């Protein structure tokens, strides 16, 4: 398996039309950020996903992202303002370990919502996708949490402050 972790990001302009569509391939040595949560998001762990709530909460803790609330609930494949849905089954993943879809306002750079799908239940994949869900792009450094290829990613979080 080569490229195994993907982010799909869309930005909505104020009139709601999609004006940016980024996917795998844009990498910088230090990861940069598309956007951030301007208010603490609610984390919904999708029921039936078989993901461990504590593992996911720990991933956000590691990323220094505060959450307003953590609940387990059913997830539909739609963005809900203010919510990260973790453990959705919305995307055709083929050879991917994880996919994150996020939406943000291009003017304010505030995130509106995120959907995270996990195919490989692994701490590194969980934390990498959690990183995308709070706006981080890829890093081109081997050994970095935000490196886009699972086999060469690692726990370095350089540049993610
Ligand atoms: Zn990624």
Describe this structure in words.
The chain is an alpha/beta fold and 161 residues long. The protein has helices at residues 53-62, 123-133, and strands at residues 5-12, 18-22, 27-28, 42-46, 69-73, 83-86, 98-105, 111-118, 138-139. It has a single domain, classed as 3-Layer(aba) Sandwich (Collagenase (Catalytic Domain)). It has two helices and nine strands, in the order ββββαββββαβ. The strands form two sheets. It has a seven-stranded mixed sheet with strand order 2-1-7-8-6-4-5, covered by helices on one side. Helix 1 (53-62) crosses helix 2. The protein is globular and about 35 Å long. It starts with a strand and ends in a 22-residue tail after the last strand. Bound molecules: zinc ion. Zinc ion (ZN) binds at residues 5-7, 128, 132, 138, 148.
Q: Provide the residue-averaged pLDDT.
A: 83
Structural classification: alpha/beta
Low-confidence stretches: 12-27
Specify the helix fraction band. 10-25%
Q: Can you summarize the main beta sheet?
A: 7 strands, mixed
Share of residues in strands: 25-35%
CATH domain class:
Alpha Beta
Reading the helices and strands in chain order gives: EEEEHEEEEHE
Number of domains: 1
